[in-house]
Amino acid sequence: MWIARAKRMLELQTIRRRCWKSPCYVFSFLSYSDNPHKKTPLQETRMRDRFNLYAKGGDGGNGSTSFRRSRHDRRGKPDGGNGGRGGDVILECSPAVWDFSGLQNHVNAGRGGHGTSKNKIGTRGEDKVVQVPIGTVIHLKEGEIPSMVEHRSSTDLDPWELPGSLTTDQSEVDLQSSLNSNMAEKVKLFHAAGQLSSCTEITTEQYSLKNEITTDQSEGMKQENVPQPETLEEIRYNVAELTEEGQRMIVAYGGEGGLGNVCYPNVLVKPKATNSEVHRDNALEDETSNNRSSLRTGLPGSEAVLVLELKSIADVGLVGMPNAGKSTLLGAMSRAKPAIGYYAFTTLRPNLGNLNFDDLSITVADIPGLIKGAHRNRGLGHAFLRHIERTKVLAYVVDLAAALDGRKGIPPWEQLKDLVLELEHHQEGLSNRPSLVVANKIDETGAEEVFQELEKRVRAVPIYPVCAVLEEGISELKAGLKMLVDGDGISDSLSLENISVD
Ligand SMILES: Nc1nc2c(ncn2[C@@H]2O[C@H](COP(=O)(O)OP(=O)(O)OP(=O)(O)O)[C@@H](O)[C@H]2O)c(=O)[nH]1
């Protein structure tokens, strides 16, 4: 038997080896880039910095209907426990996550367990924790505003262009939100009343509240079924930000559990009816059982439709063409260890580094290289330009040696012009903040003359000659950046009028 098994293994291995060498396999490998539906390796590594998330809190578990009977009490006493609360959907800020590519669009928290006999409360539904990168901004399409909002945005960000986002009628929005808050208030009151009564007796207020809630809900559903002329999509921008490691925010709440029959003994009655109870009023009985079953059912968890957006948080943004030496510069200024390569687009996602001074720490973001037409999604495209939106200061990194010795690159002043144009195309006024120019690769032969020419052609902003590989000129550059971030430096923004090109 063992020999037969060994033979079979050998056969399988031979088949696998043949498949590997087969023309089909090789062809499929070669045609990888020809297939328009397949992603190229570059596309696969692109970061996702906008993400639609549908979050649903777990439904509450149902309350139990159970009776504890004994020899002495044949009708039994109610002892059905309450249902457990549903789990919440929580966003957690984590430095281990860079973008939203690992996230799922639909996230559901766990349902609460059902109550059981002997007054046992159902288990609480499992929370669903979704890890998001530091710098995540939450825009709300539907649902409640996330709780534990400790860090609201201080920046006045423009809402990005979603159709119809700015045309919503404010009065309608106010009306809708007041209706929603009314409803939420009622649900809270209902549960508060339930908790206060601490499983003794269900109060009449609770009945009326519950009925109100169900009628409101059913009316809402009825309205939903009626075809509306045009539903306006309301997006509440920038409702919360996750900016610190470990910060948590609940975006969808679990529903409360239903009540067990131990909480409403006056409506329990029933199971084995005695003869005298047979003539009970039928209408009243129906109503009571309806109320009872609606109280038993756990409430559904809340739902939220969110748009997550990632904006790196940095004081300084390094902007430059591919291969200008931004990553090398970041490594020279800080302890960051970004990938450095002699080829363009080594940097595929923003890298952050810290410049530490005695009284201040400055965060610098190295943005992947921009090329002419980045706003039309050329190169790594405008995907990264949003990371510059939050920076206080811009450091334009230019390669002094790009056009030297017959190289195909473009002179530094043209690099600057293209960079400013790309920023402005992405968002008007994006280049309008204190800036400086880092003239890198000053060590190359002929770079000194290019630097002198650059000084003549660029006005209004300071220019720092630097050799990032040898770490020359770095301390002066760091002092210059500190001054700009502090607001002490006299620097303007770099505009097209301040750059002379041929
Ligand atoms: N001679 C010289 N070469 C440098 C200097 N700084 C960087 N380089 C080289 O320039 C090349 C590109 O450097 P990177 O730091 O990867 O450039 P980058 O701007 O981050 O490039 P992208 O990732 O494409 O955006 C590397 O081969 C570096 O060694 C410098 O001061 N002098």
Automatic annotation (TrEMBL):
* Boundaries of every Obg domain copy: 45-313
Q: Which InterPro entries match?
A: G_OBG, GTP-bd, GTP-bd_Obg/CgtA, GTP1_OBG_dom, GTP1_OBG_dom_sf, OBG_GTPase, P-loop_NTPase
Belongs to which family? Belongs to the TRAFAC class OBG-HflX-like GTPase superfamily. OBG GTPase family.
Tree of life domain: Eukaryota
| Name of the protein described by the UniProt record | GTP-binding protein OBGM, mitochondrial
Q: Where is this region: Disordered?
A: 54-87
Domain OBG-type G residue range list: 314-486
Question: Which UniProt keywords are given for this protein, alphabetically ordered?
Answer: GTP-binding, Nucleotide-binding
Q: What is the lineage of its organism?
A: Eukaryota, Viridiplantae, Streptophyta, Embryophyta, Tracheophyta
Q: Organism source for this protein?
A: Hibiscus sabdariffa
